[in-house]
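Subject — a protein and its fold
Fields — amino acid sequence, structure tokens
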Amino acid sequence: MAFTSVSFVFLFLPITIILYYLLPKIAYKNILLVILSLLFYAWGDKNFIYLFIISIFVNYCFGLLFDKYKNKFINKIFVFLMIVWNFGILYYFKYLIFTVNSINSIADLTLTVPNIITPLGISFITFRAVSYCLDVFFQACSASRNPINVALYITFFPQVIMGPITKYYEFEPQINKREFSLDNFTEGIERFIIGLAKKILIADNIAPMVNTIFTMEASERTIVLAWIGALGYLIQLYFDFSGYSDMAIGIGKMLGFKTPENFNYPYMSRSAVEYWSRWHITLGTWVKDYIYVPVYRAMSNKQNIFTHEKFSVTASDTAALFLVWLFIGFWHGAGYAFLLHGMYWFFFIFLERRYDAYKKAKRKKLKIKRQALTRNEKILAHIYFIIILFFSQTLFRIADVTEWIDYSKNMIGLMGAGLLDDYAVINLIDNLVLIIAGIFFSFPIGKYIADKFKEKNQTAFIFSKYTVLLILFCFSILWVISGTNNSFIYFQF
């Protein structure tokens, strides 16, 4: 069930809120949320609800084992089994077909390709289950004796399909104690409407142009048309995913939960490193806590068999960084294009880190302080980032290496289709309002204007804010009722 469906907006969410606030005790509210979360998941993917429940029970048991045998060697065996269980399920449903096809292609075999349907949100569910177990294993929190608490964390319906990926040690304090207030509830409604408008009014309306440009023959795409398509996809992807995150955060607030932010104006970044601290923030913190830091620490304590010395900071960082981006690449999808996408970002982040280390060493040698970037340096840095972003996200959209190479050739004029044609002009004119709105709201320009307006006249600001929200909600609902909205892009993950 999508947040943008009629059944969710007019049936599931209102019923959930009414029943939730009718119950007197937080324990009863938790039970209700578990039941409704399972119903929410089953509504969209009823074929795998039993697997979902079994997985919750198994991870609940792993948590009890980690708590019981803490600081003992057997716990490492249980961690290994937990990882095999969770990522084994993920591998079977998401990567087995890719593996068989790859073996057939490489070894020239004819192994039977299994017919497997991927459960909805399997990657995000796996992340939440693993987070619970590892947080208990690393003693960031204690295992819950109450299975309802574990089930609530793993199944929590605002986050179960597409995140944000809340770690258990962040979520756990809110299970039995959270703040219920009118201000929180109102802020939740506002955030939900903003997310709904992002998804429905911008992402879904620019999607037809993006789909048309990306699916046409490469020989017919002019340079300008290719860049228009790429820009359109950047707008679609950001407003689709951040829109969902806003709605999830808003629903959480309505129910008294604090959900971590997932986006912080990522397109204003000036480097790959900065971008990944602003884009899908909860994924970045998850892989940092559970992959990068453990690998880095393990490498730092290991001895190089050739030099018989401990691995350097650079070697440890590079190894941990490589594994992180290998994981992120495959996490996004089963295919060589997703692997290449991960390695693409690893390459640029590695170069940026090494360059920063070089500059830091140079400053230390010359005994000078770090200087702020000049205006021209900021502009050049942003241009550099935008270029690598465009080529990265076209790969993410196409998900086929050969077709991506052709599209990249379109962008730099190597496909012979010319610079500009009437079709490019028509697409630009037809979608100009959406493109301008997409660019405008991808940067904190609107927020800056709103803050200044609020400072000058708070009463007028409040009136204007709620008028705009009402208009956005009405227009969004009209699109929802018409049934022309698309499914969320990250549903496939």
In short: The chain has 19 helices and no strands. The chain has a mean pLDDT of 91. The chain has two domains: 6-177, 189-492.
